Amino acid sequence: MVVGADNLSFEASPAETENNYIPVHTYLLAQQGAPIIELINLEKLSKDRVYEFAFVGASLKFRGADAAPIRPVAFPLR
Q1: What is d(CA 8, CA 35) in angstroms, rounded to the nearest whole number?
Q2: How far, CA to CA in Å, does 56 sit from each of 17, 25, 47, 64, 73?
Q3: Does pTM surpass 0.70?
Q4: In this structure, how many other beta carbons lie within 10 angstroms of the beta carbon of residue 43?
Q5: Residues 17, 68: Cα–Cα separation, whole Å
Q6: Count of other CB atoms within 10 angstroms of residue 15
């Protein structure tokens, strides 16, 4: 599973959890193992009314990094 959005962060600010300022990231990444894609441009898909698509996001492999840019590609299913 991968989750993504066209905004900067999934987090609410300020965090409601006292000892964790990024609870959504903690849950998705650490507890569920789900990568997060932020700032993905979905405008063209929305404009073309493409609501179902196969997604390929090839990432760069940076040693020791906790994030990397990707080259996203959407293949419409219809």
Answers
A1: 15
A2: 33, 22, 20, 23, 5
A3: no
A4: 8
A5: 27
A6: 14
Residue 60 DSSP class: P
Three-state SS at 21: coil
- Which structure tokens are listed for 60? 């760069």
pLDDT (0 to 100) of residue 13: 79
Among 3, 9, 5, 2, smallest CA distance to 45 is for 5
Instruction: Determine the residue type at 19.
Output: N
At 62, list the tokens.
């940076």
pLDDT mean by block of 10 residues, the chain; 78 residues = 84 84 91 90 91 87 82 88
Token pair, residue 42, equals 């979905």
What does the block give as tokens for 39? 């700032």
